[in-house]
Amino acid sequence: MNIIDIISKTKKRTELSEAEIRWLVEKYTDGEIPDYQMSAWLMAVCLNGLTESETLSLTLAMRDSGDILDFSRIEGITADKHSTGGVGDKTSLIMLPIASACGLYIPKMSGRGLGHTGGTIDKLESISGYRTEIPVEEFKEIVRQTGFSIISQSENICPADRKIYSLRNATGTVDSIPLICASIMSKKLAMNTDCILLDVKYGSGAFMKTKSEAEELALLMENIGKKARKKCHSYVTDMDIPLGNNIGNALEVKEAVEILQGRYKGGLYDLCMELVVEILQLAGKGTSSECMKMAEDAVSSGKALEVLRKTIALHGGDSRVCDDVSLLPQAKYKYEVRAVCDMQITEIDCQELGMTSVILGAGRLAKDDIIDMSAGIVMNCSAGDCISVDDTIMTLYSSTVSDFSESSFRAVNALKFKKI
Ligand code: URA
After folding, report:
1. Does the active-site annotation cover 385?
2. Is the four-CA dihedral 319, 273, 235, 85 of positive or negative sign?
3. What is the pTM of this model?
4. CA dist., res. 110 & res. 354, Å (int)
5. Distance CA 207, CA 277 (A)
6. 3-class SS at 128?
């Protein structure tokens, strides 16, 4: 086997064998194939795609490049959930405690935010003391004790994906459906849970801009999961408006806690409940209405909040935030964006709002940027809402930026409205 033949085959759309793909992944991960040749192959994949069988081989080879976790000591059904992420996406912080309170065991490895999208790991680190990097044995023990744990990606899981993903980032080869599928599913399959729920988002705030692209990715990931003998279900959701009202790390934890306290219902609560029902059904916990009842009881009884409290404590975090959200980082400065006339908001550009929160300090433009955990945006209205002149449309928060001229300009630009 040699790399030139492999590049030429993909260039000519000739299907690669499982052995060729495994060889390619192993040799690249070991450093025997240089970046420039792997980049050429990745670009050929971007332009010509891969067949489903090639995508499966790539996913399994990447999965096998590192450790595969073993949760067989947990006496119960294990599940994992993946969201392709977006602006204000705190669904994991809400649905994992609920699903765990309903009897599932959910070990989850998550990422950090980059660009306009946030990351669950950054959100959790806004809780004082929460450790996101812990040994795998401790991770498993927390899952066994409370029902769920979220940690950052371990170095030993899918090292091939780590190396290939950073090369894709540097070579303009991220936006390929088979490459995204193999990258996500290799990590999910290495977690080795019984069930996998995939929430693929589309819209201005998401990776996939159109519904049809999201459906294609969702179906491919579901098929790969099933071929790898997992119970797998995909779900396509729209991300044309931010999820919930809050964008930014501590602000999103606050919103998640308030939902688990039963204080807010609305679009975000409904979406989380739908996702919980999907994952419970996938795990065989009952019919849709039985699972919905279980999920509602978990919130109203306070059981889900208790699961979150215990998980935060076992991670070394200040679990009092579950009772008093004012213990989360608070911004030094704030600015209210007000309506200049009576208006109806017709559209919200999520990507632009996400970038506004980055400018406020809530996200990173480069990998090593330091985050202002208190920074972000609280929306007072959503697309379709009518508001009166001088009412607050949204409030911007930051501890690092006291001059809001750039951020308020971008925030206003993110809204389309008509005078009424
Ligand atoms: N998330 C991943 O883990 N991989 C991708 O390729 C894209 C999003």
Report:
1. no
2. negative
3. 0.93
4. 19
5. 25
6. coil
